[in-house]
Amino acid sequence: MAIEKVRDILSTHGRLTTPVDSLEDDSDLYQAGLTSLATVGLMLALEDEFDIEFPDSALSRKTFGSIEAIADTVDDLLE
């Protein structure tokens, strides 16, 4: 699972108001300060790191709502 790498990328590109280290895997990232603009930067960094492309169907608040949701989506796209 890509969860640790997602955490690293989120800490660099997420611009959260809450430290990533203090978040649980299922914490709400939008409550932690994730914005729609930061989501775009996060998505691009994830695409670069994992050599994937998020389909339009995955570009939703649900996909980027938690570290766990992001990692699950990345894992699905890597398969």
From TrEMBL:
PROSITE patterns referenced in this protein's UniProt entry, alphabetically: CARRIER (PS50075)
Domain Carrier: 1-78
Any Pfam family: PP-binding
InterPro entries in the cross-refs: ACP-like_sf (IPR036736), PP-bd_ACP (IPR009081)
Protein name: Acyl carrier protein
Organism: Pleionea mediterranea
Lineage: Bacteria, Pseudomonadati, Pseudomonadota, Gammaproteobacteria, Oceanospirillales
